[in-house]
Amino acid sequence: MSNYFEFVSQELLIKLAQVKSYITKHNPTIGVLTEEILRGFLKDHLPQLVSVEQGFIINDKGELSKQCDILIYDSQLFAPLYRVNDIVVVPSESVLAVIEVKTTINKNIFHKVIDYFKSFDYLPNAKTYLFIFNSNSIEKIGDYFHSYEHKGSYQLFDHDTYQYLPDEITGINESFHLCKDSVITNTDMIGYSSWFYEDSKGSEINALQHFYSSIRRVVDSYIEKNYRSVNFKEKNDYRDLKLKSIFAIELFDM
């Protein structure tokens, strides 16, 4: 299974390279096609009880969200409220996950992503993800968090602002998968951690596998709760894997 996700990771990056070889001077189009590459992967690998599309979310007050690169929602119990071509508008109660997709990342883009996720404060039951194809290093991502300019004189995240950050951040080419976590060092902190494992054959569990396993757990938990039926059993029990290392980003005191 580890080798499979390594092959798929390389396939996704190759598809992106093919896009950029033909479309070299139009970043919006590259971004759209990048999103489609990841949507295609998720459509191929997730149960058909959920749909994977792009579009908007409308809450119970009638407020419309910003456009979402990828929405994973229950399309059996909730038909889209509106559809035009490949773009849907869905009710907030149908949404399981929101994924923001980036071809590359830098400080400015990352800070805009933080602001973007603030607008989804009415989705307490949906998980949020940032997926980066060609990411800077995990250390750089930490720097981007710490250079974010907050309103007011207190220039740190806190419990209120932390809840609006993406739940998980995946960098494919750098192969890291950050999750919100408590970080225990000399002091007890809140932030993100990325755990690096290898299987019994010594193959690393790469970022795409972590990302997919997380999405799949969200979907299967929802299906089990609402449909009383789930067929997926995760083949990679993390208790049977060897932990190689942990990287942590500390944001604020507990």
Tell me about this structure.
This protein is an alpha/beta fold and 254 residues long. The protein has 6 helices and 10 strands; from the N terminus they run H-H-E-E-E-E-E-H-E-H-H-E-E-E-H-E. It has a 10-stranded mixed β-sheet, sandwiched between helices. A hairpin with a 3-residue loop joins strand 8 and strand 9. The mean pLDDT is 89.
Brief descriptors of the model:
10 strands; globular; 10-stranded mixed beta sheet; 6 helices
Set out the fold topology:
Layout: H1 2-22, H2 27-45, E1 50-58, E2 68-74, E3 82-84, E4 87-91, E5 95-104, H3 107-118, E6 127-134, H4 138-146, H5 159-162, E7 168-171, E8 176-184, E9 188-198, H6 207-227, E10 242-253
Parallel strand pairs: 1-4, 5-6, 6-7
Antiparallel strand pairs: 1-2, 2-5, 3-4, 7-8, 8-9, 9-10
Helix pairs in contact: 1-2, 3-4
Number of domains: 1
Taken as a percent bin, the fraction of beta residues is: 25-35%
Helix content: 25-40%
Helix/strand class? alpha/beta
User: How does the overall form come out from the CA principal axes?
Assistant: globular
Number of contiguous helices = 6
Please compute the radius of gyration using only Cα atoms. 18 Å
Strand order of the largest sheet: 3-4-1-2-5-6-7-8-9-10
The major pleated sheet works out as: 10 strands, mixed
Query: How many extended strands?
Result: 10
Protein name: DUF6602 domain-containing protein
Pfam families: DUF6602
InterPro entries: DUF6602
Quick summary of this structure?
With 254 residues, the chain is of the alpha/beta class. 34% of the residues lie in helices and 31% in strands. It has helices at residues 2-22, 27-45, 107-118, 138-146, 159-162, 207-227; strands at residues 50-58, 68-74, 82-84, 87-91, 95-104, 127-134, 168-171, 176-184, 188-198, 242-253.
